[in-house]
Amino acid sequence: MVEQRIQQQFFEGADLKYQSAEPLSRAVADATQALLTSITSGGKMLVAGSGFGVSLAPHLRSLMLGRFERERPGLAAVVLGEDSAAELQALAQPGDVFVAIDAGGPRAGLLAAADAAHGKEITMVVLADAAAEPWRDRLAETDVLVAVPHERRPRVMELHLLVLHCICDALDLQLLGEQET
Questions:
Q1: Is 181 inside any structural domain?
Q2: Helix (H) or strand (E) segment spanning residue 126
Q3: CB 3.0-4.6 Å disulfide test: which of 35, 72, 100, 156 passes with 129?
Q4: CA-to-CA distance for 12 and 4, rounded, in angstroms?
Q5: Which of 56, 80, 70 is nearest to 164 (CA)?
Q6: Which pLDDT score, from 0 to 100, does residue 114 have?
Q7: What is the number of structural domains in the chain?
Q8: Would residue 100 be called left, alpha or beta, if left means φ above 0 and alpha means ψ between -120 and 50 degrees?
Q9: Is the pTM of this model over 0.85?
Q10: How far is Cα 169 from Cα 27, in angstroms, rounded to an integer?
């Protein structure tokens, strides 16, 4: 019985990834382009999360500062804390990108940071779940929403992690070219 439940978790995760590949690929490519434009123009990534997104934010920063799968110079990335709106006000400059990882939980701080981001005229990339409505009203034309078509938090977190890895891989491809085998 336990093994069947474990297998079901694997199947559900795999099904969600398979079903999301086509619908999310354009948004992930757009998010990558926003970050690439910022990085190549001397900007930085400011990242914050809610719910499980709090643990994904430092993971993304470490991938940007260090490496994903290939050696490259570090890319400027800052994780914002609990008062992300005030930190964003103090640190953001035109050309930066704010990455909001909304994986459930209290999102008031993230939404306030989004408002601050627009006040600073920076692009926003939002990773959300199927209940992305609070974000749609806050998106500018240059902002990107990657809304995972699921509401179960563990599945959303798994897909957010995959999206972040896809972004890092695509950035490395754009910055470093094809990897020689």
A1: no
A2: strand 123-128
A3: 156
A4: 12
A5: 56
A6: 92
A7: 1
A8: beta
A9: yes
A10: 15
